[in-house]
Specification:
The protein has two domains: about 240 residues, Glutamine Phosphoribosylpyrophosphate, subunit 1, domain 1, CATH 3.60.20; about 180 residues, 3-Layer(aba) Sandwich (Rossmann fold). The protein contains 16 helices and 21 strands. The strands form five sheets. Strands 3-2-4-1-10-9-11 form a seven-stranded antiparallel beta sheet. A six-stranded antiparallel beta sheet has the order 5-6-7-8-12-13, covered by helices on one side. A four-stranded parallel beta sheet has the order 16-19-20-21, sandwiched between helices. A hairpin with a 5-residue loop joins strand 9 and strand 10. The longest helix is centred in the middle third of the chain and has 15 residues. The model has no long low-confidence stretch (mean pLDDT about 90). Bound molecules: guanosine-5'-monophosphate (5GP), iron/sulfur cluster and magnesium ion. Iron/sulfur cluster binds next to helix 8 and helix 16.
Amino acid sequence: CGILAVWSPQPTDVAGLLHLGLFALQHRGQEAAGMCVSDGHQVVVEKDLGLVSQVFDEARLDQLRLPDARLGIGHTRYSTTGSNLRFNAQPLTVRSSKGILAIAHNGNFVNAKEIRQSLLEGGAVFQTTNDTEVMINLIARYSRLSLVEATAQAMRELEGGFSVVLMDRHTVLALRDSHGVRPLVIGRRPEGGWVFASEPPALTLMGAELVRDVHPGELVWVESGQLHSLQVLEPHPTPCAFEWIYFARADSVLEGIGTHESRVRMGEVLAREAPIQADVVVPVPDSGIGAAIGFSRASGLPFDYGLYKNPYAGRTFIQPTQALRDLKVKLKLAATPAVKGKRVVLVDDSIVRGTTSGRIVQLLRDAGATEVHVRISAPPIKYPCYYGIDTAARKELIASTHSLEEIRRFIGADTLAFLSEAGVRAAIGGPVCLACFNGQYPAGYPHEEPQKEAL
Ligand code: 5GP
Ligand code: SF4
Ligand code: MG
């Protein structure tokens, strides 16, 4: 998911700003979008299933355009827990002893089920199936504490990988779990406003300068125009490696490390780890481009435009059903004549189910490629992510049930190699979570496998 918050010292077009920021975070979730705006008195929310551009037309933005608007939060949704239903769209708002609260989050709480159960036993009622509501209920339960103190207390009780933005009528808060699994950055606007966003490109569009990342285990908020910070939990940084491998935008810089640059390094390391005699390096667009550039540089093999991507087709993986995904691969990619008669190195960022790679290998052969050598700039994904990336249930992950040789045969490649874990670490250069590759979950895991609700 993508999350966003803005606070302005003067009345401003908060809805217009959030709209721009959400547009820059569209890649983080395409199932639903929403925003919540306040002028200090009223709080208005608009959210729905669909892309940002589908949910927010001018009429809908006008609903949010309070003349004295000063603050707001926004969300783009990618469902990991809770099904793809309208009432699961965020921001989620509740009326509590602290007044109206709105929340949007990215990631998962691995102990949400236990906390939900104990809150239910205490008489709480839930309207949604997603675990955002668990956090807001926890906060609302501490009626004697200030909003900041209550939020800090909720942070101490929740486990998992999550970044959150939260608002009441007057202020915005932002926080990350103690491992900083999901990203969250702080930006400053020239007139003194503050922005919190999942990734820096949202700041750029909102006219804000990157100040820094929110630290793991830190709670920040705006009070009287000043940014305040409380280091609630001892930081144990293990940000998600997958943000650099695939998920974050190529123009993002997270924890001071550029995603594009680290993808190029992944490709360079991969070329050294798994060299091959070939004629041309072809990326799977767009996710394989950075690594293919690196592979080409380190191997000396020319980079070429071997696959055309229809820019109107959207991101395949994020489509929730297999039937939709299969159709989308055909709609999305076609081989160019650059591969005809060539031994091709095909570079992509990851293999999840293996269906995309298999289809692409076939496209290249049909277009006259004589050999296809697949190079993947991440290790095999063998374990599920419990921290907000939907790498699918374990039984759907081809690498959890198949050997390297079986995967090679399944996708029809002449050779196949994956980047090593050490290679990922070296290319990113900081401590990272690699749990979907090695099963070592730094921020805990749920007692029971979370089920998508069959509603
Ligand atoms: P598959 O192996 O399942 O057919 O697809 C792998 C492709 O899905 C890669 O090109 C990768 O870029 C893309 N992809 C899109 N979204 C995601 C995601 O959330 N996780 C992973 N691992 N791959 C994704
Ligand atoms: Fe990222 Fe994988 Fe860790 Fe999930 S398990 S947070 S996708 S590295
Ligand atoms: Mg891809």
